[in-house]
Amino acid sequence: MNLDPRIMEKAEVLIEALPYIQRFNRKIIVVKYGGSAMVDEELKRHVIQDVVLLKLVGFKPIIVHGGGKEISRWVNKTGMEPRFVNGLRVTDDATMEIAEMVLNRVNKSLVQLVNELGVKAVGISGKDGMMLRCDKKCPGGQDIGFVGDIKEVNPKVIYDLLEKDFLPIICPIGFDNHYLSYNINADDAACAIARAVKAEKLAFLTDVEGLYRDFEDKNSLISEMEVKEAQEFVDGGTLGGGMLPKLQNCIDAIRDGVSRVHILDGRIPHCLLLEIFTNKGIGTAILNSKEEHYYHE
Description:
The protein has helices at residues 5-24, 41-56, 68-77, 93-116, 156-163, 186-196, 227-236, 243-255, 271-277; strands spanning 28-33, 60-65, 84-85, 88-89, 121-125, 132-136, 148-153, 167-171, 173-175, 181-183, 201-206, 224-226, 260-265, 284-287. It is α/β, with parallel strands linked by helices.
């Protein structure tokens, strides 16, 4: 019997995924969703398909999303100029109102996409269930308005949703001791939530391929690195742009109990599946110790 080779390839792909499905069955994975994958409609659909598949094969995914480009678009619409300090949005009363409106709008659009694929999603913010309590973040001592520095995470509402088989989709709006709303950096929110729920994995969808030993050399992509080496990268001062705080967030998450953090290029269709379910992977995985190496063999 002559079988189409493509059929056999599909079987091989499923068999390759089997040990990873077994390894992470019923484990929590937090996906920080942002960058180009939120803007391009086709990429957005691929990301949601990936997360739904993770849910259906036994993972417990949580989506934490940003919406910075959309917020800036609406700020411009109102005739204001978006301003940033050290990569953080200066958030006055009017900007905070826009940010909360836009993030909740983005949140419900993602809920709709997940629901359309037959999985029950619930969209919430960090204010729901008093999840993300903040202080004001003042970079370099500068007051930039309603920008939150997370001080406490109450994950009860997340656990309740997971227990009832819902997929939580969380937008990074928190509150302070006076219950005022605060805009939170989505990377910070994803890390804090991953630490609070002791997630097995935290995946960042970014606009870079991963971490390079030499950014100018595209052959120097690091597939896996231990947290000690990652800290050396941070301390070495060679990282630029938004990667430095992102990598420090990864390190902090692992030290607080997250088993593995992935930095992925969200511009690659189905990047989550390629990284999690294949031996080679496509991004950079940061882990705690040599004993935990089980990818890229």
